[in-house]
Amino acid sequence: MLNKKKDKLLGKCPFRNLKTCSRECILFREGIRYAEKEGNSFPFSDCSLNIIADNLEASHNRMYMMQKEVGETKNVMALKILSDIGQIKKEDVVNKAINIVNTKLKEIE
Questions:
Q1: Cα separation of 93 and 98, whole Å?
Q2: CA distances in angstroms from 53 to 4, 69, 83, 88, 101, listed in the order given
Q3: What is the pTM of this model?
Q4: CA dihedral in degrees (95, 97, 103, 105; nearest 10)?
Q5: What is the pLDDT of residues 20-73, one digit of tens each?
Q6: pLDDT of amino acid 67
Q7: Which helix (H) or strand (E) covers residue 66, if one does?
Q8: Residues in Cβ contact with 1 at an 8 Å cutoff, skipping those fewer than 6 apart
Q9: Which 3 state secondary structure label does DSSP give 10?
Q10: What are the structural domain ranges in the chain?
Q11: How is residue 95 annotated by DSSP?
């Protein structure tokens, strides 16, 4: 998973000899951003290249988490099948599922 950089506002532009980004630049954008974890929105202004990079990072992180969850679900289903045919104890399947749920609850907090 990619680590997102801290929010930056109007950083220095490499295309304008490292001057501060401003409304005069064609790449300058402003709008409203939604913070998923906090559940609120806030105004922002930034270079469109930074916005594109942030969106790519967010997309990558969502895909990573989805792949991780699918893998965990697949493992629990495989354990369930093994318990149904008597290869492992049903308690092992329950314990694995409980561990996954507890891990997810800790991530949410």
A1: 9
A2: 10, 24, 45, 46, 32
A3: 0.61
A4: -120
A5: 777 888 888 888 888 777 888 888 888 888 888 888 988 998 899 899 889 888
A6: 92
A7: helix 48-84
A8: 60, 61, 64, 65
A9: coil
A10: 12-108
A11: H
